[in-house]
From TrEMBL:
This is Flavin-containing monooxygenase. Pathway: Plant hormone metabolism; auxin biosynthesis. The lineage of its organism: Eukaryota, Viridiplantae, Streptophyta, Embryophyta, Tracheophyta. Its EC number is 1.-.-.-. It comes from Cinchona calisaya. Keywords: Auxin biosynthesis, FAD, Flavoprotein, Monooxygenase, NADP, Oxidoreductase. It catalyses: indole-3-pyruvate + NADPH + O2 + H(+) = (indol-3-yl)acetate + CO2 + NADP(+) + H2O. Transmembrane segments: none annotated. GO terms for biological process: auxin biosynthetic process.
């Protein structure tokens, strides 16, 4: 079984014998098309491969896991223990630490793709995907990023796996165009090496903003971090047990509001009063906030200590930028050399998927976890549950099993049809 397009197939070849049939710039795909070759897309592909279902993976970048390979900083480590980050059917190598590094994770994904013989079609950006009622199929249009050529894929199943963090969010700030220093988004930040002695404004206090501020400190930069509202900061581990693992265990027995209360109390006990440093806690608990608004709590890996010691200055929201600095909402003026926008990411589903029944306007499924993986007419979603890699694995298993089951039924029906036709012919003769 191949998942590569065979552009040399003669036009009359039966599509059921081959994964695809090429007609001009159209490709009929015998099996699902998966959009995105990140962890979610790879996990679904692995599940399909195991069940003998052919598939095509379309990826806009020139590599798998492009978020991890191209858009993350050097010091990044998985922030949940390894058992919550493994993809289905294939464990991490035994020698990997509890919190694998970004490079270890990328190596694991490369091995994963090789092991399951997943060969995405790289440099193909999906521009639109629409269900065609007339032919009962999905029509997926892509453009090749190297030569701008266009291809239309036609298939019965579409798996959206383009991620919750497909595009950077760059808010508009008054006067930013006049600022004379360097401005970049967190997705382009690699390390603090180039910032020695520089005054850097880090906008945003999610996991990216917190870790980049810490990294800048470690390279002798002078970071100020903008916290415009509030944020839950929790220790990554409590008494040697990962906070995430504890939350999973407690949630089995206790209501979410009680687990939240326990975590906030423990965080207060272990971290002290962090509000006096400008780090305000939201009134809604961390898990509740994650569930309702998708706002991830920060798992602290050392930033709080730097804030306490004054090496990272916490500042309020931004009023406006000017040539040499920034005016803050409290009226203070900060002279700065650079700005790093750790202002988050968004889904890009609305830009390419012409559908509004299953996905809402923000590019996330309308039905919450654990039921947001299957839409109508062969549409599936993987990796949009706001539950990181473990949520993506959960979706991927369900999606590949569901498609596998339908595939096997259809195959059985086709075989039965062929058998009865052969029987009728042999009776006649
Ligand atoms: C800095 C950072 C650190 C993170 N750390 C963790 C962590 O430790 N643990 C955790 O669980 N989660 C973490 N996450 C969340 C992370 O998004 C997921 O873990 C994981 O990458 C999700 O996989 P995915 O395949 O769903 O999405 P992605 O990894 O984003 O992959 C989606 C793929 O789809 C491709 N694509 C997008 N649009 C198109 C298109 N139109 N056409 C073709 N291809 C397209 C992209 O190029 C990309 O390769 C982190 C996120 C960030 C930003
Ligand atoms: N080690 C790791 O595993 C790791 C590291 C980094 C990221 N991640 C994950 O990656 C995902 C994205 O994280 P992220 O930190 O990049 O994004 P994020 O969690 O969405 O945080 C964005 C931050 O930017 C702020 N912001 C947005 N617009 C702003 C504006 N106009 N002015 C001031 N502040 C503004 C937000 O403040 P408000 O809250 O006020 O809106 C928020 O603090 C998360 O799931 C995260 O857990 C994981």
């Amino acid at each position: 079984m191949s998942n590569q397009c065979n552009l040399c197939l003669p036009p009359m070849v039966d599509a059921s014998e081959h994964d695809e049939l090429f007609i001009g710039r159209r490709i009929l795909v015998n099996g699902p098309v998966i959009v995105g070759a990140g962890p979610s897309g790879l996990a679904v592909a692995a599940g399909l491969q195991q069940q003998g279902v052919p598939f095509v993976v379309l990826e806009r970048a020139n590599c798998i896991a492009s978020l991890w390979q191209n858009k993350t900083y050097d010091r990044l480590k998985l922030h949940l223990p390894r058992q919550f980050c493994e993809l289905p059917y294939f464990p991490f190598p035994k020698e990997y630490p509890e919190y694998p590094s970004k490079n270890q994770f990328i190596n694991y994904l490369e091995t994963y793709a090789k092991h399951f013989k997943i060969n995405p079609r790289f440099n193909e950006t999906v521009q639109s995907a629409k269900y065609d009622e007339n032919c009962g199929s999905w029509r997926i249009k892509t453009v090749d990023t190297s030569d701008y050529s266009e291809i239309e894929y036609i298939c019965s199943w579409l798996v959206a796996a383009t991620g919750e963090n497909a595009e950077k969010v760059v808010p508009e700030f008054e006067g930013l165009q006049d600022f004379s220093g360097q401005v970049m988004h967190a997705c382009d930040y690699k390390s603090g090496k180039a910032y020695d002695g520089k005054r850097v404004l880090v906008v945003g206090c999610g996991n990216s903003g917190m870790e980049i501020s810490l990294d800048l400190c470690n390279y002798n930069a002078i970071p100020s971090m903008v916290i415009r509202s509030s944020v839950h900061v929790l220790p990554r581990e409590i008494l040697g047990i990962s906070t995430f693992q504890l939350s999973v265990s407690l949630m089995k027995w206790l209501p979410i509001w009680l687990v939240d209360k326990i975590f906030v109390s423990i965080a207060r006990l272990l971290m002290g009063n962090i509000e006096k440093y400008g780090v305000k806690r939201p009134s809604t608990g961390p898990l509740q906030l994650k569930n309702t608004l998708g706002k991830t709590p920060v798992l602290d890996i050392g930033t709080l200590n730097k804030i306490r010691s004054g090496m990272i200055k916490v500042v309020p929201g931004i009023k406006k930028f000017s040539r040499d600095g920034v005016e803050l909402e409290n009226g203070e003026f900060l002279e700065i050399d650079s700005v790093i926008l750790a202002t988050g990411y968004c889904s890009n589903i609305p830009s390419w998927l012409k559908e509004n029944e299953f996905f809402s306007g923000d590019g996330f499924p309308k039905t919450p976890f654990p039921n947001g993986w299957k839409g109508k007419a062969g549409l599936y979603a993987v990796g949009f549950s706001r539950r990181g890699l473990s949520g993506a694995s959960f979706d991927a298993i369900r999606v590949s099993e569901d498609i596998g089951q339908i595939w096997k039924q259809e195959l059985k029906q086709k075989n039965q049809g062929a058998l009865s036709l052969a029987n009728r012919r042999s009776c006649k003769s």
